[in-house]
């Protein structure tokens, strides 16, 4: 009887991993299954080899006969609506050719190739003879290939790769072999304090920075990154979004698992399911970042509070009552102790109401008061450094005026960008405006959600929202609500204007 999808049924995003089995469950098929499961994606498997390995290394590899690999591929691809195929260890030329044939026969959205040749611990997992067929047949079919420095060197005939500049060159050279995207992983760079990866789509580079976690538990990081990219692609993410999300997932898992003790060898596995038992941050009391929270983003101003005789807590209470969906505390004049105390009081106001509270510039204050994150400018702390200090659960926004700045914010681990000033404003002296055209340009180029800021109020908010790009999520305002006799009334008025503009643009 044919299965028919009816009301209430939905297709699960589905990744097929074609790789070797790791008896120690740190890498290979086991890592892929765990990573996809942790990211909410169904994962099926085709096993190409069975290995005997543990934290000490690889003791043996037993390839699966090619005809049985073909049987596995046919069974899954013909029945289970695979979205993305991810490859790992492919131990023979015949297995690579069989895989290529099946991918041509059965349509999938994307192919992610992790060119496993040498494990992180140095064990050789594939014969050199497979390199030619990998380069000539599989890579031209790949949507992304994810080599580490050792694998990238092998793909390029033994080219020496020792610096970030070398990684740029390698990414460009590997792209010429045919894959649509390349990410060269810099985990083996000995002179880098950050974990640096270089992504290249054939036109633009992204240099992705993350915190280098000091731990022995790194077995399976390459498999996990590739399968996480596959999982995000299966869920509908763009390639840059998928790469960024995957890098963050691996970094967070390593950080959480850095002190786990499994096995006696030099390289242990890590916990893919850290989110189920995460003691790094009490995230159960907080909501995850929702781009829709940017809809009406209120930014406090100490001068305006002083002008109207209001405390910061009074201003925050009023703007939330009026309907603000996110609040940022921008206090340039307060002493640190005073600011921390006021910020803690504002956290107590915002959190029960489900309104995220961010601190402008001051990472130290955000940490001290338990705020939901920070917003930084171009001359402030870089996003990747703020992320390393705040951890994975906090929200980070970055002020941007250009697509290049938005791309850097994305690469640095930011959650959103604030674009402006859109119009002239009296809150920042000599602030260069970008206008509606500049805002549109950044929105069209940005991989992150965008909030427009600068001179926006009830009289011109509609013209901002009429840009109607998918990434523009709302407006950030200062004077329009805080330099007014009634914060509540002006916030409600502005929110009504924004809501009407969104409704009209959808018609």
Tag the structure with descriptive keywords:
507 residues, alpha/beta, UDP-N-acetylmuramoyl-L-alanine:D-glutamate ligase, TIM Barrel, 2 domains, eight-stranded parallel barrel, six-stranded mixed beta sheet
Q: Could you explain how this protein is built, in words?
A:
- The chain has 507 residues and is of the alpha/beta class.
- It folds into two domains: 14-278, Ribokinase (UDP-N-acetylmuramoyl-L-alanine:D-glutamate ligase, 3-Layer(aba) Sandwich), CATH 3.40.1190; 285-506, TIM Barrel (Alpha-Beta Barrel).
- It has 18 helices and 17 strands.
- The protein is elongated and about 80 Å long.
- It starts with 13 loop residues before the first strand and ends with a helix.
- InterPro entries: Aldolase_TIM, HMP/HMP-P_kinase_dom, PM/HMP-P_kinase-1, Ribokinase-like, ThiamineP_synth_sf, ThiamineP_synth_TenI, TMP_synthase.
- Its cofactor is Mg(2+).
Oligomer: single chain
| Name of the top-level CATH class of the largest domain | Alpha Beta
Helix count from the secondary structure assignment: 18
Count of individual beta strands: 17
- Overall mean pLDDT stands at 90
**CATH architecture field of the largest domain:** 3-Layer(aba) Sandwich
Q: Brief overview, please?
A:
Residues 296-481 form the Thiamine phosphate synthase/TenI domain. The protein is α/β, with parallel strands linked by helices and 507 residues long.
Sequence-ordered SSE layout with sheet pairings:
Blueprint lengths: L13 E9 L5 H11 L3 E13 L2 E7 L2 H12 L6 E4 L5 H13 L4 E4 L16 H9 L5 E2 L3 H7 L8 H12 L6 E4 L8 E7 L4 E7 L9 H14 L4 H19 L38 E4 L2 H6 L4 H11 L3 E4 L6 H15 L6 E4 L2 H7 L3 E4 L6 H8 L4 E6 L2 H9 L4 E5 L14 H11 L4 E4 L7 H5 L6 E6 L1 H4 L4 H20 L1
Parallel strand pairs: 1-2, 1-4, 4-5, 5-6, 10-11, 10-17, 11-12, 12-13, 13-14, 14-15, 15-16, 16-17
Antiparallel strand pairs: 2-3, 7-8, 8-9
Helix pairs in contact: 1-7, 2-3, 3-4, 5-6, 7-8, 10-11, 10-18, 11-12
């Amino acid at each position: 009887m044919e299965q028919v999808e009816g009301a209430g049924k939905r297709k699960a995003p589905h990744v097929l991993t074609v790789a070797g089995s790791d008896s120690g469950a740190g890498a290979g098929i086991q890592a892929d299954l765990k990573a996809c499961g942790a990211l909410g994606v169904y994962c099926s498997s085709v096993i190409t080899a069975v290995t005997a390995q543990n934290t000490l290394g690889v003791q043996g590899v037993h390839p699966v006969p090619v005809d049985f690999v073909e049987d596995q591929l046919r069974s899954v691809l013909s029945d289970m609506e695979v979205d993305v195929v991810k490859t790992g260890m492919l131990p023979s030329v015949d297995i690579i050719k069989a895989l290529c044939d099946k991918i041509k026969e059965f349509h999938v959205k994307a192919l992610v190739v992790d060119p496993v040749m040498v494990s992180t611990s140095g064990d050789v997992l594939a014969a050199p003879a497979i390199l030619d067929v990998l380069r000539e047949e599989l890579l031209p079919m790949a949507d992304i290939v994810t080599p580490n420095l050792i694998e990238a060197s092998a793909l390029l005939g033994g080219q020496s790769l020792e610096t970030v500049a070398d990684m740029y060159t390698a990414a460009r050279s590997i792209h010429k072999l045919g894959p649509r995207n390349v990410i060269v992983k810099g985990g083996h760079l000995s002179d880098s304090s950050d974990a640096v990866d270089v992504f290249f789509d054939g036109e633009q580079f992204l240099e992705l920075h993350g915190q280098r976690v000091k731990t022995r538990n790194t077995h399976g990081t390459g498999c996990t990154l590739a399968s996480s990219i596959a999982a995000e692609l299966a869920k509908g993410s763009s390639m840059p979004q998928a790469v960024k999300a995957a890098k963050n997932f691996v970094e967070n898992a390593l950080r959480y698992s850095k002190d786990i003790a499994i096995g006696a060898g030099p390289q242990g596995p890590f916990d893919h399911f850290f989110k189920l038992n995460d003691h790094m941050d009490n995230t159960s009391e907080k909501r995850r970042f929702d781009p829709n929270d940017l809809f009406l983003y209120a930014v406090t101003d100490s001068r305006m509070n002083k002008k109207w005789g209001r405390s910061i807590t009074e201003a925050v209470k009023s703007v939330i009552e009026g309907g603000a969906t996110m609040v940022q505390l921008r206090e340039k004049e307060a002493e640190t102790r005073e600011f921390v105390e006021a910020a803690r009081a504002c956290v107590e106001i915002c959190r029960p109401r489900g309104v995220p509270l961010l601190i402008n510039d001051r990472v130290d204050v955000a940490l001290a008061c338990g705020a939901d994150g920070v917003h930084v400018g171009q001359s402030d702390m870089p996003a990747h450094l703020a992320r390393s200090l705040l951890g994975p659960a906090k929200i980070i926004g970055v002020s941007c005026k250009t697509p290049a700045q938005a791309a850097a914010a994305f690469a640095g681990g930011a959650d959103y960008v604030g674009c402006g000033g859109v119009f002239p404003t009296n809150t920042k002296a000599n602030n260069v405006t970008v206008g509606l055209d500049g805002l549109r340009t950044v929105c069209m180029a940005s991989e992150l959600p965008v909030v427009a800021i600068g001179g926006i109020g009830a009289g011109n908010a509609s013209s901002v929202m009429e840009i109607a790009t998918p990434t523009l999520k709302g407006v950030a305002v200062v004077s329009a609500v805080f330099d007014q006799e009634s914060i509540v009334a002006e916030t409600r008025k502005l929110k009504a204007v924004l809501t009407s503009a969104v409704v009209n643009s959808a018609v």
